[in-house]
Amino acid sequence: MNLLSVENLCVSFPTPQGRVNVVDGLSFDLGQERLGIVGESGSGKSMTGRAILRLIRPPGQVEGRVNFEGVDLFSLSERQMRTYRGARISMIMQDPRYSLNPVMTVGTQIEEALRVHERLPKRAMKARVREMLEAVRINDPDRVAQLYAHEVSGGMGQRVMIAMMLIPRPKLLIADEPTSALDVSVQGDVLRLIDDLVRDHGMGLILISHDLPLVARYCDRILVMNAGRVVESCDASELHNATHPYTKGLLAAVPQMHETREELPVMDRTLWAGT
Amino acid sequence: MGRYMSAISLNNVDVAYDGVRVVEGITFNVARGESFALVGESGSGKSTVLKAICGLAPEWTGEIFLLGEPGSHRPNLSLARRCQMVFQDPYGSLHPRKTVDAVLSEPLAIHGIGGQDERVEQALADVGLDRRFRFRYPHQMSGGQRQRVAIARALMLEPEVMLLDEPTSALDVSVQAEILNLLKRLRAERGLTYLLVTHNLPIVSFLCDRMAVMSKGRVVEIASSTALHDGSFTHPYSQALYAASGGA
Amino acid sequence: MLTREWLLDDSPASRGQAAAGRAYRVSLDLPRNPLAVAGIVIISILILTAIFAPLIALEGPHGQYLERRLLPPSGDHWMGTDQLGRDIFSRVVYGARITLMIVALVAVISAPVGLLIGAVSGYFGGWVDSVLMGVTDVFLSMPKLVLALAFAAALGPGIENAIIAIAITTWPAYARIARAETLTIRNSEFVAAARLLGASHTRIITRHVLPLCTSSMIIRVTLDMAGIILTAAGLGFLGLGAQPPSPEWGAMISGGRSYIFDQWWVATMPGFAIILVSLGFCFLGDGLRDVLDPKSEGKS
């Protein structure tokens, strides 16, 4: 059985010109694998992640079906949904500085994340936090647990976020641009870490990003989104054989390390406007 | 002397913010018409160097020469005609209540240059914007269009030196390609000198001739862009940065 | 020429069209907010009443008709009559003129002063900021009404002096807001870009900083109008503002004080007028905040 199956997902927002679908009939199935959703700003990729967790606030409207381990998430009450959020499905956001509570130490926040979903004696709790911080490759977990959000660097903060999200042992992790706020040297570390944890725990991963080459490196399958629709769906290894002009255009527009082109190819947006 | 020939010449420059030194001992020369990159990670001080050159970071010591004339500790009219800057965030670098027309006319008004109408129209055409954008407000344009306006503003005074502070990092890749092409074309057409700050090495490969790798407020290595093709960096930090950016 | 399409054109062809389009969008947004509409209606009634006071009022605001003093509200005298037999409704109507004048003059005097001081202080920082904000703090640390009382007492009673006194006490709040806004604006990239173009400090303050402060200032001034009206009424009530027989609402309440237990309408009717107009300005201010807030602009 699939871990997650999304059927005809639509997210719409009202505008002066009427309701506009920012996600328009999206369907996919996810097993214990790593799925990358790629698109430019406004493609609806972030809204997809939020819609799965039912985090779209009014006036936004969500339609379609999302099945997680055989349960229709959209039919759950808000209270039942809360037991899924965090515990079964976790989400990592873009910038750790905005996602961490500034007046709580890192250790307390991770404990909080665990306490909401599991009752454990204090000592066992501390041990789990320590273990988790070690799992995200923080060398001195005891010291870091005492720090506040503003005292940790971007990379460290994102690791803490990952620890917080993974400590209730969810089955599915949604990572929305988890590394765009980080330096290149740290980006690789964080993605490799997410990768290892996802494999070790047998989780599903949805990696949402604007960076096509990066997603290709860390995912099994890729969905390319444009204007709320999937324009290309393929295995990551088959990306160079992409057929849709939009995907091809995206791939070609990225400057290369061995750049010899005098001019970068620019997408002609009229080409696929009808699709 | 090199400093009189080069477009930008820095000799042992230190820069501080409120007394705290963030950049130390920067020395490099950029020839006229050359495109030079400062690369490094956040906090390496690369943007600070740009700000010192254009006078926005007043607390610098050492020698800065711009087109043969000594640098200034604050922006002034003569500096403005020699050197302009394009900022990272096209959403923050345009006044939210000014039309494109007002943004582009302002440099002309400040410097008392006439023929505003034709010049504004010409500037829009040069950066590939249709004339119907002329009276739009920033919120009526996309990120790429705003960045084109910012580039047009920088070019209004026809400076020889352009300082580019991560000009495409806030843009989508397809838009980034358009802006990079535009910058390359403008440089070829006008013989501009570029000093580009970026953390993205492939952009350097596309747009620049040479680069200085910065780390923790110092230049650790000055290399030709060809080093990006074969990885022939000598300093361990540059090698690590190259590897992390996907270089073999 | 002045059609809807022309105003909402995404690619205006001239400076005038761009500015008109922006104003039109604001005027389209405002009526969507029911509170703002209520505010606009009340303020419009106030303005119309002030303009057409002689037509609306049943009689002049002055005079004595001792044979009909202290009559309760009735068909003849909608709000009753006061201790000198004057029709309270007519006096309230004429009072609208005074209220409107006070509000307008205070806004015209104190908002620009506060705006300028705050912007200069925030933009330059350093000792300029310390000195200007020190002065501002001195004014802020004193209760508004007491300070206004002191000034009114020093300048002598009268409506003009009351206006000056109120203006002196209101500008510091605006200076504080303008300074706070300027602090965020002065580090923005568009100010850096303007400096690089060689723009002078005067130019940056007047062309770049002030236009961005004005919308929050308009909102704040509108919200403060209620307070200004109340302070003016307070001064009138204490005998330091408008002098009898002027139909200023505060002075009218003051006049009705002695009869408040037996002839409640004498003090209550002008009180209602004060509450209604204050409320109108508050509603309008809240509505303007939703429409003019630069952060919400362009999102819809």
Outline the fold blueprint.
The complex is a heterotrimer of chains A (275), B (248) and C (300).
Chain A: E1 4-15, E2 18-30, E3 34-38, H1 45-52, E4 61-68, E5 71-72, H2 78-84, E6 89-92, H3 96-99, H4 106-115, H5 122-135, H6 141-144, H7 154-166, E7 172-176, H8 184-200, E8 204-209, H9 212-218, E9 221-226, E10 229-235, H10 245-253
Helix pairs in contact in A: 4-5, 4-7, 5-7, 7-8
Chain B: H1 2-5, E1 8-17, E2 20-30, E3 35-39, H2 46-54, E4 60-66, E5 69-70, H3 77-82, E6 83-86, H4 100-110, H5 116-126, H6 143-155, E7 161-165, H7 173-190, E8 193-198, H8 201-207, E9 210-215, E10 218-224, H9 227-230, H10 236-244
Parallel strand pairs in B: 3-8, 3-9, 6-7, 7-8
Antiparallel strand pairs in B: 1-2, 1-4, 4-5, 9-10
Helix pairs in contact in B: 4-5, 6-7
Chain C: H1 4-8, H2 15-29, H3 34-51, H4 53-56, H5 88-124, H6 126-140, H7 144-155, H8 159-186, H9 189-196, H10 201-237, H11 249-256, H12 265-292
Helix pairs in contact in C: 3-5, 3-12, 5-6, 5-8, 5-10, 6-8, 7-8, 8-10, 9-10, 10-11, 10-12, 11-12
Q: Would you mind describing this structure in some detail?
A:
The complex is a heterotrimer of chains A (275), B (248) and C (300). Helix content of chain A is 34%, strand content 25%. Chain A is built from ten helices and ten strands. In chain A, strand 4 and strand 5 form a beta hairpin. In chain A, helix 4 crosses helix 5, helix 5 packs across helix 7 and helix 7 packs parallel to helix 8. The longest helix of chain A is centred in the last third of the chain and has 17 residues. Chain A is globular, with a radius of gyration of 20 Å. Chain B has 248 residues and is an alpha/beta fold. In chain B, the strands form two sheets. Chain B has a six-stranded mixed sheet, sandwiched between helices. Chain B has a four-stranded antiparallel sheet with strand order 2-1-4-5. In chain B, helix 4 crosses helix 5. Chain C has 300 residues and is mostly helical. The longest helix of chain C has 37 residues. The radius of gyration of chain C is 23 Å and the shape is flat. The two termini of chain C are 26 Å apart. At the B-C interface, helix 3, strand 6, helix 4 and helix 6 of B face helix 2, helix 9 and helix 10 of C.
Radius of gyration of chain A: 20 Å
Largest sheet of chain A: 6 strands, mixed
Structural class of chain C: mainly alpha
Can you tell me the residue ranges of chain A where pLDDT is under 50 for at least 5 consecutive residues?
Answer: none
Largest interchain contact = B-C, 41 and 29 residues
Our measurement of the CA-to-CA distance between the termini of chain A, rounded to an integer number of angstroms, reads 32 Å
CATH class of chain C: Mainly Alpha
Going by CATH, the homologous superfamily of the domain at 4-94 and 171-253 in chain A would be P-loop containing nucleotide triphosphate hydrolases
Shape of chain C: flat
Per CATH, the architecture of chain C is: Orthogonal Bundle
Report the principal-axis shape of chain A: globular
Overall residue-averaged pLDDT value of chain A: 83
CATH topology of chain C: MetI-like fold
How many domain modules of chain C? 1
Strand content of chain A: 15-25%
